[in-house]
Amino acid sequence: MHLSVMHPSELGEHELARWRGLQKANQASSPFLSPEFAIASGRARPQSRVAVIKDASQIAGFFGFELVVPGVGRPLGHMLSDLQAVVTAPGTRWSWPALLQSCGLSVWAFTSLVQPQAVGMGARSSVHATETSLIDLRAGVEAYLRGRRRASASLLSTCERKKRKLDREVGPVRLVQDADASDFAVLRRWKSAQYRRNKISDIFSLDWAGALVQHTSRLRSDSFGGGVSMLYAGEIPVAGLYGVRSNGCLAYWFPAYDPAFAAYSPGVTLLLELVRNAPAAGVEVIDLGRGDESYKMRWRNAATPLAEGYVARPSAQAHLWRARTSLREALLRSRARGPAEQGLAWWRQAASAARAWRPRLPEESG
């Protein structure tokens, strides 16, 4: 296995075509595994890299990552990427230690790695199971809706009733696909306000994040695109989504609604309208992302197993990363305890983390 590591902007037409072909061959339809997302990440984050994996005869795969500091990597667009994987040709043999070493990485931390690639990472890794919720429409929209009615008799009827009320009291309900820049500005304000209400860091307060999202809207191809879908009641926008799609998969990336219309549940109406319009838009799967929000649990009919954690190879940086990760996890667990127990647990973990960071002698690190 031979690797060439480069900035995404250095990918040529041959590499891009091969990447898209490998996506289809692996049914890796997520837009976050596309070369266009890598290019958008590269434009927003100079530290973005792509490893082009080659065998004796041709390009065998691609691995996108972002350098945090020398030797430590994370996914491209790390806080914005809902799915990660090494995209390879079927049957390609590779290993994490060899891949990390060839990329100059001691640690690669991931948030949503496809679960099969997290198997067998070894002792120098930390892996936690998670999953992403899907609306799978490949059997047809009507088959999906019948399944939702069987799962919850009131789900669709309640949604339809609220849609009729919104239509009657505010204005005719309509879905606008590929809405304009002014709609995106409205959606962004709603999303930032939602982050603040929920006491979550506003991703759009980071210049690079806004730039990455904007870049995805400008990278259109037959297999990739990004844009705003806006639900209107009359002439009033009430809910919207900025999503990215690739090979029939729509990532439900940034949904938001106007809280002034919360009583009408416009976000749910938006989702239902997107489902009904999916065939016309060439969408077969809507990826709702990770998380256990109630709407995801009610509307999903499938899930993709994922993994969160990190993989490392022997190095002082890897020991430090493991120590920091152990300490952070201990602090999160201690929040449920009383103050005295929290303090004792914190010091115990701090001591354990310090011991874990102790640099190993060469004979220890094999």
Q: Can you walk through the features of this model?
A:
- The protein has 12 helices and 13 strands.
- Helices cover 40% and strands 27% of the residues.
- A hairpin with a 2-residue loop joins strand 10 (236-246) and strand 11.
- The chain is globular, with a radius of gyration of 22 Å.
- Strands 1, 2, 3, 4, 5, 6, 7, 8, 9, 10, 11, 12 and 13 form a 13-stranded mixed β-sheet that branches.
- It is of the alpha+beta class.
- The protein has helices at 13-25, 35-44, 96-103, 141-151, 155-169, 181-197, 207-218, 266-276, 278-281, 294-299, 316-334, 339-357; strands spanning 2-6, 48-54, 59-69, 72-74, 87-88, 107-114, 125-136, 173-176, 224-233, 236-246, 249-257, 285-290, 302-312.
Structural class: alpha+beta
Global shape? globular
The CATH superfamily title of the largest domain: Gcn5-related N-acetyltransferase (GNAT)
The CATH architecture of the largest domain can be named as 3-Layer(aba) Sandwich
Given as residue ranges, the uncertain stretches (5+ residues, pLDDT < 50) are: 353-366
> Percentage of helical residues?
25-40%
Radius of gyration: 22 Å
The total number of structural domains is: 3
Q: Count up the helices.
A: 12
Topology:
Layout: E1 2-6, H1 13-25, H2 35-44, E2 48-54, E3 59-69, E4 72-74, E5 87-88, H3 96-103, E6 107-114, E7 125-136, H4 141-151, H5 155-169, E8 173-176, H6 181-197, H7 207-218, E9 224-233, E10 236-246, E11 249-257, H8 266-276, H9 278-281, E12 285-290, H10 294-299, E13 302-312, H11 316-334, H12 339-357
Parallel strand pairs: 4-6, 11-12
Antiparallel strand pairs: 1-2, 2-3, 3-4, 3-5, 6-13, 7-12, 7-13, 8-9, 9-10, 10-11
Helix pairs in contact: 2-7, 5-8, 11-12
